[in-house]
Amino acid sequence: MAMPPERRVEVKHVELCKGVNGLDKVVLREVRGCSAEVYLYGGQVTSWKNEHGEELLFVSSKSNFKPPKPIRGGIPICFPQFSNLGPLEQHGFVRNRFWSIDHDPPPFATSTSNKAFVDLILKHSEEDFKIWPHRYEFRLRITLGPGGDLMLTSRIRNMNTDGKPFSFTFAYHTYFAVTDISEVRVEGLETLDYLDNLKNRERFTEQGDAITFESEVDRIYLSTPTKIAILDHERKRTFVLRKDGLPDAVVWNPWDKKAKAMPDFGDEEYKHMLCVEAACVEKPITLKPGEEWRGRQEISAVPSSYCSGQLDPRRALQCG
Ligand SMILES: O=P(O)(O)OC[C@H]1O[C@@H](O)[C@H](O)[C@@H](O)[C@@H]1O
């Protein structure tokens, strides 16, 4: 049945405009009022709001949005190197490159109900070739679903013409906004092995039945399930992270000392953020010329009572 004209809501699903310091950004909007913002600098999501306009991602108030520094918060992309696991700069270089809008992406099997999405592309440059001697095409689709879910899909193709394969590690370095880190639990990683970045990447096995936070945490959980839940007890909100093609998951909170040491991070801000990152770290991906890899992360935010009527993380994990 057609809606009476006065009730029809016109939403501009995709809008290119200027953000902080005149940097280009794309705003994605959905009819119920949720939105997301993506900077072409870094190909980086910097905002994800629910239908009440509440911000779900953390961006530091000290982040200066000034190239060549990466933006502190949102969802930086780590490629072709996660952390300092290789000769490149920390987390690779694409988080401080200017991406372009890809107006003619190759076909994508996707739901036709999604109208709020943008395709970005980054290709090798002659400058980058000097530090990472490979030709590549990195296509990134960012979609805000009608229900407010945020999906990121990366397609990376080896474009080398010299017959050489390349290898890389990768992460969607997602900064979730939380009310109080000491009231947060992460479910879905229990009993798994992890590499502890604070102990020379020594391997341990998670013993607790959930991860909670009372000091600095910097771990790479290996071969995790595809679904992880982050429970913000105080806000009664659960983030559900689903991933595909990304076997590992990084969990990071700098806590007070490291927070003070980071110039683009407020001293107290560690209380209000938690990074949980769909990643591929332990076993790098190798692509031969012409081959393509895909890695996907989908995040949603639901009231913690939505699944279970109570704060039972296991039940929260089962729903959806
Ligand atoms: O300060 P950066 O380069 O953005 O990195 C932040 C953190 O990113 C995390 O993913 C790493 O595990 C940490 O070791 C690192 O400190």
TrEMBL record:
Its EC number is 5.1.3.15. InterPro entries: Aldose_1/G6P_1-epimerase, G6P_1-epimerase, Gal_mutarotase_sf_dom, GH-type_carb-bd. GO terms for cellular component: cytoplasm. Pfam families: Aldose_epim. SUPFAM superfamilies: Galactose mutarotase-like (SSF74650). Keywords: Isomerase. GO terms for molecular function: carbohydrate binding; glucose-6-phosphate 1-epimerase activity. It catalyses: alpha-D-glucose 6-phosphate = beta-D-glucose 6-phosphate. It comes from the Eukaryota. Gene3D superfamilies: 2.70.98.10. Belongs to the glucose-6-phosphate 1-epimerase family. This is glucose-6-phosphate 1-epimerase.
